[in-house]
Amino acid sequence: MPAVNNVLVIGGGLAGTATAIQLARHGVAVDLIEVKPDIAAIGSGITLQGNALRVLRQLGVWGRVSRAGFAYNSLGLRAPDRDGTLLVEFPDVRSGGPDLPATLGLPRPLLARILLDQAAATGVKTRSGLTATGLEQDGTGVGVTLTDGSTSRYDLVVGADGIRSATRRMLGIELEPEPNGMGIWRVFGPRPASVTRTDLFYGGPCYLAGYTPTGENSLYAYVVEDAGDHSGLTAEQRLARVRDLAAAYHGPWDEIRSTLTDPSRVNYTGFETHLLPAPWHRGRVVLIGDAAHSCPPTLAQGGAQALEDAAVLAELLIGHDVLDDDLWDAFTARRHARAAEVVAASNQIAQWLLDHEQGDVPGLVHRIGALVSQPA
Question: What is the CATH number of the domain that holds 44?
């Protein structure tokens, strides 16, 4: 008998949908609400390491994800010279196990659609354009008021509503992510035949430039520069900014750059980070994913850590008879230190870039790879 009978999940991203799917598959009644009208229409691409793929397999969506994305098992480093010279190619850690690829890239909206479809198939009741405005809890449940004025009561509320989590604020937690001084331009476009894995370029006018294949005919490319306020730029000016920065990078970048013609496929995000101290719950409300922790994408572990949060939380809720301190202690023990180490390592790599310091990136990547290769 699960520890809960009915659950509200706030947020339809990776952490929220994964939690909802796993709970519903084990007989828990789950409502999933998402403030955005259509979360499956947002974003460019996403890079998922093997430990993320391991969770997607648990959710029953690995077959669809693998067909939709582009899998690879190595990482390339290239020079910011006129040829984009390949300096080294090395095998990546297969952190999901030998039967899963090391890495898979795919369009973020497509991943969102796959997860939302799976949620619906497992009986999750999903409503978009809706979120919570009030939480009133006691020892047996949580009363929730929604933006449409309706109220409901749940055994547990899961706040998976992202880096700007309104749930976090409703709990009175005064924690906001801090910028680190860098920002990333991402652009989605067609994949040249020469792009079969992620290649990273260090140096040149940007801290970092790279690309990730996301399907047979798609990729997303990115450049990382000093953070700035680009809100006043038109869509065409944003595209021109990316093309100007990318002009210093060659090899496959030359063909990629020639395809960057659609201003609507460019987005910019500042690097931010935060980590909620343990515990991540307040009574019968718990925060997971970006609501609890975030970091720069320097290790491509943001999505994986959100999925791990969901998998561990759902496993404990299903495996315990009551929602008590033992359950929460187990959740903290399995998630907090692990997520903290990933956040710290991601921030360390970002700091080395900011300081133009040649830190031991391979050593740090190997250490985190070994950590996340062990199931959470």
Answer: 3.50.50.60
Residues 27 and 149 in one domain: yes
The pair phi, psi for residue 337, each rounded to 5°, is -65, -40
- The 10 Å Cβ neighbour count of residue 93 is 20
Q: What is the CA radius of gyration of the chain?
A: 21
CA distance 296 to 220: 17
Contact 58, 312 (CB under 8 A): no
**What is the rounded CA–CA span in Å between residue 51 and residue 310?**
13
Residue of 195, 194, 124, 193 lying closest to 160 (CA atoms)? 124
Q: Nearest-CA neighbor of 32 among 46, 14, 44?
A: 14
- pLDDT less than 50: residues of the chain: none
Of residues 213, 231, 233, 230, the one with CA closest to residue 222:
213
> Is the pTM higher than 0.85?
yes
* b/e sequence 184-209, b meaning 16+ C-beta within 10 Å: bbbbbbebbeebebbbbbbebebbbb
Q: How far is CA 182 from the centre of its chain?
A: 18
Question: Do 197 and 310 lie in a common domain?
Answer: no
pLDDT in tens, 37-87: 887 656 789 999 999 999 999 999 999 999 999 999 999 999 999 999 999
* CA–centroid distance for 366 within its chain: 20
Within this chain, do residues 202 and 323 fall inside the same structural domain, yes or no?
no
